[in-house]
Specification:
alpha/beta, D-Maltodextrin-Binding Protein, domain 2, 5-stranded mixed beta sheet
Length: 240
């Protein structure tokens, strides 16, 4: 049997999402497929992905690891960049929290990132737990964003169809969600986090922060199979 082009094999696996179905569609033994996919991934060089901030990096890390596990041999080059790079230095995929204003980018909406509020039990033992979002104004809050020069922070929360906007007193303002998690774990205040952590308690568990939309930006309308596969994988994982 004449060997199939490696990237054709890779494209079929990424399109159907399973080795067994891909092997049947291509008419090749299942035992040969993992090696051909791994070789195709190595031959193509690393998949370069730019991320906007540490919070998005932390949220997407398990999703990227799951994608890598399905595609042995595929290598990644990940970096955090505040501004979307200009041509010709653009990576295979640029992840951003808002659609681009530059018309040379093509935007693919991936879904949303969600966050709830968490605090340590010893903090809640010292301060009565909030019963309504408005109560957050009287609490020490931990903001996760760039420096706001001390301005009051506007937290937007939702519960079903209900909406609430609170001007919080952020005692701490950090860019790294892991630092926010550690501060919360040490009783420093209430932090918005993508997920909890051992020892933290959900605050206002029926409420969540307004979800943040996530976009994948590309430059070319025709994308390599591995880039299309990663976009599809993230879209499934982040579905609203």
């Amino acid at each position: 049997m004449k060997p199939l082009p490696r990237m054709e094999v890779f494209a079929k696996v990424t399109s159907v999402g399973a080795f067994g179905r891909a092997a049947a569609a291509l008419g090749i033994p299942l035992t040969q497929l993992p090696r051909q996919v791994a070789t195709a991934g190595r031959d193509a060089g690393p998949l370069r992905v730019d991320l906007p901030d540490a919070g998005t990096r932390q949220a997407l890390a398990p999703l990227l690891a799951a994608f890598a596990a399905c595609h042995p041999g595929l290598r990644f080059q990940l970096r955090v960049t505040r501004a979307a790079p200009a041509a010709p230095d653009r990576p295979d995929l640029t992840i951003r929290l808002e659609p681009p204003t530059d018309p040379s980018w093509l935007a693919h909406r991936l879904g949303t990132l969600r966050a709830g509020l968490y605090a340590a039990p010893d903090y809640l033992a010292r301060r009565p737990a909030p019963e309504h979002p408005a109560d957050l104004a009287a609490h020490d809050c931990i903001g996760v964003h760039a420096d706001d020069h001390g301005a009051p922070a506007r937290w937007q929360l939702r519960r079903g169809q209900d909406r609430a906007v609170v001007m919080t007193r952020e005692r701490y303002c950090v860019e790294d969600p892991e630092m926010a998690r550690q501060l919360a774990a040490r009783g420093a205040g209430i932090a918005p986090l993508r997920d909890g952590a051992p020892g933290l308690v959900a605050v206002l568990p029926d409420w969540e922060l307004e979800p943040v939309a996530l976009y994948a930006l590309t430059s070319a309308p025709r994308l390599p199979a591995r880039t299309r596969a990663l976009i599809a994988h993230l879209t499934r994982a982040l579905a609203d």
